[in-house]
Structure formats: C-alpha cells, structure tokens
Design brief:
alpha/beta; two-stranded antiparallel sheet; single chain; D-Maltodextrin-Binding Protein, domain 2; 19 helices
C-alpha cells in the first residue's frame, strides 16, 4: 500500500470515527425526553394519535408532542421555524421539498444511525429509497419513507362495458390508450363532446414519465439543464397536445366546467372515461356512487415503462437536542405503522413490503386491483431535485400555451427550457 492509499484510508477512518462520536450513545433503552413531531395527514389524525399512544407504551421514557399542520402550510411553517430556531424534531415531508431541506443543512444524516442499529432497509420497496439517497446512489439517507404514491390509470368500468371494450391492462401502451380514447369519446348531434376519452396535460404525473418511457429526458443527467427541446421530448409533447388539438379526445379548460388538470372532478362526474393522476386521489374516487371504477398500470412508452411516484417521508432536524428519542420515533413511524393506518382512505401505499402485502390492505376496495399500486413501484421515477416545485410550475405554465393551441410545441418547449434553466442554474 503506497503513502497516498494509506492517507486516504486514514482519512476515511477519521470520518467514520467523527460520525460515531456525533451519534447519541446507546440505543432505545437509553432514549428519553420529549420529541416534537409535525404531520400533515389530516385525514389520519385520529389514527395517528392512537398509534403514538402505542409508541408511548413501548417507549414510556419518551414523550411525543405531536401537532397537525395543514398540508399546504407545513413547508412554509417548517422553514419559518428553522429561521426562528423552533423547528420540530421530526416532521413529514414530500420529495418535492426534501432536497431543499438537505441543501440547506436542515436535516440530520440518518446513515450513521441506520448502520449502528443495523436498520433493515431491505424491508422497504427498493425503488422508494432511490429518490432519498443524497447524492444519488451514495447510500446517504436524510429521511426514511413511511409510504409512497404512484400515478395510476383510473377508468370508468361502465363506459368500457357499454362500448364492449376490454379493461386496460399491463399490455397497453400509449398508442393503445389513444385508440381506445377515440372510441370512448362521444359527441352530441351538434358536435359538442358529451364524454371525453381521456385527459391530457403537461403535469408531472403524466408527461414527464412518458418522455422518459419514450427514451427521452426532462433534465440533463446532472440535473442542471432542461432537455425538453430534444427530439424525443418534443415528439412526446406533440403526442399529448394532439390528443386535445387534433384527435379531440381530451378537453382543455375552456370545454368542460369540471375540468381542472390534476383534479378528479371531471372523471367523478362521468365526463371522462380515463384519467391519470396519483394514487392519492383514491380517497376522493371512493365518493363515486353513479358508476363502477377501477385502476390499471400507467401504459408503457415506446422504449420502456416509467411511472411517476415517490415517498412521503419522516425526517429529523439537524438541530434537534434529542437525537436518541427522535430516532426511535422515526423508526417506529416508518417501520411499524399498522396496516389500519394505510387502509383508512387508501391512496398511500405502505413503504414496508410486508405491510403492503397484508390482506387487510390489499382487500380494501375499491379499487379492485389494489395490487397495481404495488406492481407500479418497480417502474417509479420521481425526478425530484432542489426547487422541483418551482421549475415544474415554470414548465407547466410555458407548455400550457401549446396544450391550449396558442403556440407550436417546439416554441413552447424552447421557452420552457429557458425558464427551467434560469431556475436550475440560479440555485
């Protein structure tokens, strides 16, 4: 071993030693004190309180002060709390904000805790952890997943039955979806549309994964520049725009009162036969009484299948004074949440594989094909970055002009990239 190799090895040993010194000594037996915890799952608050009561029985020396924060307020409230040095010890966050917390140094690196306690990450669906490694592929985790969401193809079974068309399945690609959407679009005698076959949009739940599935890219590999002007991306955007402007199988906001992109209202009203959005919409879909519905896997592209999805996580503040207690609660929330918590309302898929395959969760219907949500995990790509929400909003706002027929796709894609690059390169 030469001098350079010896020096490098000593440096690595020093880093490991420092990480171990930074850890709270001892495991769960020594964890005591108070842990503050913020959550945004408003529809599960009663269940959460019962679950935390169970934690208190298991860890009587730890007191949890839990607070319910509306989901549209939690991000800003947490940022403000860090500025005033009153941040909670633990909180829920989505991958749409996760990288910004990491970038600011707000989150505790959980990898040393995971290593010390031999926490079995194999319990989680592998693809879910991929989005949480910072840098990508590094094995450094600043969060653990509690659940995940994935895009699904929702469809009106009554409409398919009436038309004599088989339900969507894993064999479908986007050309098949378009063909069926044409058959399920019904026009009145005056030419107006009584029922659209599908809803096309530039939202991340649909467009971004299709670009990837066709072999294209939304961002460069280093996530520092936009690639929507690449030929594959432009062709994919054109395909989605044509559904509205040429094929007339999808509405735009001026055609349908209930149409709000990413809202299930048009589908729930029976005005749309098929609709793609996240699994989070299942709770709302269960309000449907006028027809039967189900879900299928998002169709594959010309190169492969890619489905939007990502985890809701629990993170620990880097400034917490009770790292031992916070870590014990974090493990409990992410790895021991009961099936009943997920089955209530559905839409949130357990991140622990054993919980996700439990009969109580799989048999909670509708939808009849709950298994689709588990199968989708293999194909999930989130594409999350710092300031993801900001550049995604810029992308939609510029591409909307093409979807509304106000600008050619190539021109809209060029404007989108200019707006996205400005955001990515300023951070």
């Amino acid at each position: 071993m030469n001098r350079k190799q010896v020096s490098k090895r000593l440096g690595l040993l020093l880093v490991v030693a420092l990480l171990l010194l930074a850890l709270p000594h001892g495991g769960s037996a020594q964890a005591t004190g108070t842990v503050t915890y913020w959550t945004y799952f408003t529809d599960k608050w009663d269940l959460e309180q019962k679950f935390l009561a169970d934690f208190k029985k298991a860890r009587p020396n730890i007191t949890v002060q839990a607070q319910l924060i509306p989901p549209d307020q939690l991000q800003q409230k947490t940022v403000t709390a860090f500025a005033s040095k009153t941040a909670p010890d633990l909180w829920n966050t989505a991958p749409t904000f996760y990288y910004e917390f990491v970038q600011r140094g707000d989150l505790e690196n959980l990898t040393p805790y995971i290593t010390r306690d031999k926490t079995g990450l194999g319990a989680f669906f592998p693809n879910i952890l991929t989005d949480l490694a910072v840098p990508p592929g590094s094995g450094n985790y600043y969060a653990l997943p509690r659940n995940y969401v994935a895009s699904l193809l929702y469809y009106n079974k009554n409409v398919f039955d009436k038309a004599g068309i088989g339900y969507p399945d894993e064999s479908w690609d986007w050309n098949k979806l378009l063909d069926v959407a044409k058959k399920l679009t019904i026009r009145n005698a005056d030419g107006t549309v009584a029922q659209f076959g599908f809803v096309s949009s530039p939202w991340h739940t649909m467009l971004d994964p299709l670009i990837l599935a066709n072999g294209g890219r939304v961002l460069s590999d280093d996530q520092k520049s936009c690639r929507l002007t690449d030929p594959v991306a432009v062709k994919t955007i054109q395909f989605m725009v044509d559904m509205i402007q040429r094929d007339k199988v999808s509405p735009n906001p001026t055609q349908l009162k209930e149409y709000i992109v990413e809202s299930p209202d048009a589908f729930k009203a029976g005005k749309v036969a098929m609709f793609i959005t996240g699994s989070w919409a299942i709770t709302s879909m269960r309000e449907i009484k006028s027809f039967d519905w189900d879900v299928a896997m998002v169709p594959k592209g010309s190169a492969k299948r890619v489905i939007y999805g990502g985890p809701d996580t629990i993170v620990m503040s880097s400034s917490t004074k009770n790292k031992s207690g916070a870590w014990e609660l974090l493990k409990y929330l992410t790895m021991q949440t009961p099936v009943s918590w997920y089955a209530a309302g559905m839409g949130l898929v357990p991140s622990v594989q054993k919980t996700a395959t439990a009969k109580e969760w799989l048999s909670s219907t509708p939808p009849a094909h709950t298994q689709v949500m588990l199968d989708s995990a293999t194909f999930m790509v989130g594409g999350f970055t710092p300031h993801w929400l900001e550049w995604q909003t810029a992308k939609r706002n510029t591409l909307n002009e093409a979807f509304f027929g106000q600008k050619p796709v190539a021109a809209a894609a060029k404007e989108a990239c200019a707006a996205i690059d400005k955001i990515l390169q300023a951070k």
